[in-house]
Amino acid sequence: MAKYIPPSSEKFAEQFKDKDRQMTAWRLIPISILYNTDTVKAADRPRSLDDLIDPKWKGKISIPNPTQHAETAQFFWNLQKFRGDKWLDFVKALAKQEPHLCRIVRAGSQCADQRRGTSRPRLHQVPQTI
Description:
- By secondary structure, this protein is an alpha+beta fold.
- The protein has one domain (28-129): Periplasmic binding protein-like II (D-Maltodextrin-Binding Protein, domain 2, 3-Layer(aba) Sandwich), CATH 3.40.190.
- Helix content is 18%, strand content 14%.
- The protein contains two helices and six strands.
């Protein structure tokens, strides 16, 4: 495959460039933890992914269903880069929290199914182009 470096990619951070320049990233998917400010006090909000493992969040987490949302599956897979050998431990611990798997995610991160309006923190993907 021939190298092609789009002129616009020269502004990309090095971490988003393929080392062999065989591929150019075209979007980023930031992940955030959203919570209902009407029911969760700022002092109690989850501040990191590890906070979601706290037993107080069991049954109160919503995430887009990774079998229906490729971005969620990719997020879990990419944890290897940030957590090394411990990535799967986090995924298993999160699964033990019995998260609600959303079928549809609407703008504003609302899970579009039967559990709307809860105080669950949500892992949410917002596709962005670079």
